[in-house]
Amino acid sequence: MMRLFVKFACLSLLSNSAKVYRPGTQGFVDATARWDASTKPGLELVVMVASEIDVQHTVEFANAHNIPYLAIGGGHGGSMSLNNIRGGIGIWLRGLMGVDITNNGTEAVIQAGQKSGEVIQALWDKRKMSVTGGCDCTGFVSPVLGGGHGWLQGRYGLLTDNLLSARLVLWNGTAITVDEKTPELFWALRGAGHNFGIVTSVHYRVYDRVTGEDSFSTVAFIFRQDKLESVFTVANRWLEVPNRPMELSHFTNVMINPAIDAKPSFVFMIYWQGDAIPASYKDQIKALSPVSTVERRLTMNTVNSNAGSDFGGPACAKGASHRTYPVNLMKYNLKSLRRAVDIFATLPSPFSNSVIMLEGFATNRVEQIPEESTAYPDRRSKILASPLLTYPANDTKLDKMAFEFGKQLRTALLTDAKVPLSAYVNYANGDENNRAVYGYDQWRLQKLQGLKKRYDPKGKFSFYEPIQT
Length: 469
Fold this sequence. Notes:
Layout: H1 2-9, E1 19-21, H2 26-32, E2 43-48, H3 52-64, E3 69-72, E4 88-92, E5 99-102, E6 107-111, H4 116-125, E7 128-129, H5 141-145, H6 153-156, E8 163-169, E9 175-178, H7 183-192, E10 198-205, E11 207-208, E12 215-224, H8 228-240, E13 248-255, E14 265-273, H9 279-286, E15 292-299, E16 321-324, E17 327-329, H10 334-344, E18 355-360, H11 364-368, E19 383-391, H12 396-415, H13 434-438, H14 442-455
Parallel strand pairs: 2-4, 3-4
Antiparallel strand pairs: 1-2, 5-6, 6-10, 7-11, 8-9, 8-10, 12-14, 12-15, 13-14, 13-18, 16-19, 17-19, 18-19
Helix pairs in contact: 10-12
């Protein structure tokens, strides 16, 4: 490692604001701390870049010395494939900061070091809003590259549907603009973008804040598990309605809370983009006799606090292991869901902070955009189901248990769906095949494979859900 540092110290082309961190320094600790402690990319140095040119020089240096490298954004990706890098350089993008409104207020130039919550707040302060993720502490750009589910997608599409262009550093250090003038690479960047380079900034579509549309009315109902089938029968009716309201989303966390019940309980949350949730939705759930009900009105820049995924909230805390096992679903199969909850009930005590997440973002605009228009493969599913197993870090025995329970829970959720596994790539566990995360259409996989060979011929960007060529 010291030999690597000595070599790197000889590189004088970095800007004065760039920093190089070795293991043991606070900068290295900050850069490599991940939301999932069981994901441990093997890095020997971290370069905090301060410009796109710094990224280029770092890539060129690493290539010259045959050193692998990995871009670091918010540190939330949990795919096991990230563990495949060894003796690498981390290219920490946190030094690339800025959110600037341009093109008569219709676009924002967002630098790759920004976190999602920072972008939300910056837009809010400029009386703008856009499709943004449900967790403040993730990086902003990385979710865009994997499709990106989030607030306002029912109205404006996925995060990736609002990408207008990106600055991209390729494997050889060349920096290019990717947009509609480079249609094939632009297609690939929107859904499989982690495979093609390091994005340093994006031009992103933004919208004026409109009173009513820039806030959410929410209600959270807590139920014991015996109401599972009743609640999700109602939720299925909402999903089945043609042209369901774009303002309506719902989310669930199945959890273990002994203060409520020794068996699993769940919180069912309704989000309505606007001033008030129509009584027809709220009353249907309230009639099922929840243990408790909490109503809140939240603005766009505070909505992530409702689920504890704001800065400082429990969902953003690092230090524990967090393994996700995503499954995309068209509806709630009640038998499958019950089977999963029964398995969840058998988790041993080290997993007591685990949940089964069921995210039902509005999908109106998402479904209207043709599937073939981007590399993101699944615009028909209406639910992101994801067992999230949380447990103490640095315990290989618990890692193995998490993997086994995760597989069981995923299988249970999928059993009666009678479709092959489709998994949201941004939540990927790392045991999925390419078809599960990039789609089952043969033309789609062949196109991605061809573009991977063309734009990353040496496989430099193959540490997050890599396209197999």
